[in-house]
Design a protein that fits this description.
There is one protein chain. The protein is α/β, with parallel strands linked by helices and 376 residues long. It folds into two domains: 121 residues, Rossmann fold (3-Layer(aba) Sandwich), CATH 3.40.50.10350; 221 residues, Glycerate kinase, domain 2. 36% of the residues lie in helices and 18% in strands. The protein is built from 14 helices and 15 strands. The strands form four sheets. A six-stranded mixed beta sheet has the order 3-4-5-6-9-10, with helices on both faces. The protein has a five-stranded parallel beta sheet with strand order 2-1-11-13-15, sandwiched between helices. The chain has a two-stranded antiparallel sheet with strand order 7-8. Strand 3 and strand 4 form a beta hairpin. Helix 1 packs across helix 14. The chain starts with a strand and ends with a helix.
């Protein structure tokens, strides 16, 4: 039997690579000579850097950049394809996890560090830069990122606006004369499944602002700021980004990347599939084992295991999903194209205990699946 192991991460517990390694241990405890291909995956969010670097034999780079609250943070990004392609996760430099709950304030948080990471990739000579959106602490429309790359945002008095979302409403002039000239020779790709527009009822601030610390009053003000940013971009850069699908991703970073870097937005899982060559590998195996930290109805909306199952069914391959937890109706399970789905928890335990024993639980559950497959 030939197996493809393509799990996503178990967030907060195991990386996708660690999940795949534990699945392999489980298989080999039953079938020592099993033919196993490990191809961990991600959906464009957390873990995408590690997944793409591993699949393409690339390298991880680290840099000190400005964090969301202007402190220095150590952020990593990946480079592969002979230093031609870089993969950057927004959460590394501007992530919500970098901001303590009591300090969350989208008036102040900035995406400046993302611009610095992009500069690092440009310094390495990369000609293609993929930016994975998700988990951001910011609501600045990508202004901080653009400032790091040389764009100036001036108020009516000709002064630079302060960092963060608070100053967006005061933008009067956008000066792109000093933007890094290397940008024009680079293809930028946004990895995101978010389809929200920049402003309004379903925009960046209304939908995602509260989880970043925005009060109802702040939501109104920040939304007006993003509206002003969109107006100035349309007037001065001749690009209407206000209602483009995905412009509201990561606090408006989708809009900023499109406006200032001419970035092209794609589904995160599609990008990962392209750069891991998973479709051709699926054709060659007998069983696919995937999984994630928690499988529920959200899995069907672009999550990695769903993408794997959909691709596998194209070639009639059986799919086994081994996840940390499960909360889904049986009918929806079959709609996903999965043939078997199993949770890893072996005995009553709380979340902390389950996360601590995740590796052993993955091994045990995978071994149990293999023993079942071998019943004659």
């Amino acid at each position: 039997m030939k197996f493809l192991l393509s799990p996503d991460s178990y967030k907060g517990s195991l990386t996708a690579i660690e999940v795949a390694n534990n699945m392999e241990i489980g298989i080999r405890s039953v079938l020592k000579d099993a033919d196993i291909i490990k191809l961990p995956i991600a959906d464009g969010g957390e873990g995408t850097v590690e997944v793409l670097v591993a699949a393409n034999h690339g390298t991880i780079h680290e840099a000190n950049v400005m964090g969301p609250l202007y402190e220095t943070v150590r952020a990593k990004f990946g480079v592969f394809n002979n230093n031609q392609t870089a993969i950057i996760e927004v959460a590394e430099s501007s992530g919500l996890t970098l901001v303590p709950v009591h300090s969350r304030n989208p008036y102040k948080t900035t995406s400046y560090g993302l611009g610095e990471l992009i500069t690092c990739a440009l310094d390495l000579g990369c000609k293609e830069i993929i930016v994975g959106l998700g988990g951001s602490a910011t609501n600045d429309g990508g202004v901080g990122m653009a400032q790091a790359l040389g764009v100036k945002f001036l108020d009516q008095a000709g002064q630079e606006i302060p960092p963060g979302g608070e100053g967006l409403l005061n933008i009067h002039t956008i000066d792109v004369k000093e933007i890094d000239t290397r940008i024009k020779d680079v293809q930028f790709i946004i990895a995101s499944d978010v389809t929200n527009p920049l402003c309004g009822e379903f925009g960046a601030t209304a939908i995602f602002g509260p989880q970043k610390g925005a009060t109802s009053e702040m939501v109104k003000y920040l939304d007006q700021g993003l509206e002003n940013l969109a107006i100035k971009i349309n007037e001065q850069l001749k690009l209407d980004i206000r209602n483009i699908e995905g412009a509201g991703a990561a606090g408006g970073l989708g809009a900023g990347l499109m406006a200032f870097l001419s970035a092209n937005m794609q589904k995160g899982i599609d990008i990962v599939f392209t750069y891991t060559n998973i479709e051709n590998i699926i054709k060659t195996v007998d069983f696919i084992i995937t999984g994630e930290g928690f499988t529920d109805e959200q899995t069907m909306f672009g999550k990695a295991p769903y993408g794997v199952a959909k691709m596998a069914k194209k070639y009639g391959k059986p799919v086994i999903c081994i996840s940390g937890g499960i909360s889904i109706e049986e009918s929806e399970l079959f709609q996903m194209g999965m043939d078997v789905i199993m949770g890893t928890v072996q005995a009553p335990m709380n979340l902390e205990e389950a996360m601590e024993s995740a590796g052993e639980n993955v091994q045990y559950t995978t071994a149990s699946v293999i023993r079942t497959l071998m019943i004659r």
